Amino acid sequence: LWRFGYSARLLKTNHFRTAASNTSFPAVWMVLAQYSGRIPGLSVVVKKNSFSTMPETVEDKANLELYSPHPEVRGMTVLNREAFKRTVVVPVLKVKKEIVNILLKSLKHMVLQRPGLKRVVEDPEDEDSRLVILDPHKIPEFSLAESEREVLKQLNVCPEVSKYNLELTYENFKSEEILRAVLPEGQEVTSGFSRVGHIAHLNLRDHQLPYRHLIGQVIIDKNPGVTCVVNKTNIIDSTYRNFQMEVLAGESKLVTKVKENNIAYELDFSKVYWNPRLSTEHGRIVELLKPGDVLFDVFAGIGPFAIPAAKKKCHVFANDLNPESYNWLLHNCRLNKVDNKIKAFNMDGRDFLLGPVREELSKELPLLKEEQKTSFHIVMNLPALAIEFLGVFRHLLVGEPCSTAGLPTVHCYGFSKHDNPTKDIQERAEASLGTSLDGRCSTYLVRNVAPNKEMLCISFQIPADVLYKRPCPGEGKEQA
Question: Which PANTHER family match (predicted)?
Answer without folding.
Answer: TRNA (GUANINE(37)-N1)-METHYLTRANSFERASE, TRNA METHYLTRANSFERASE
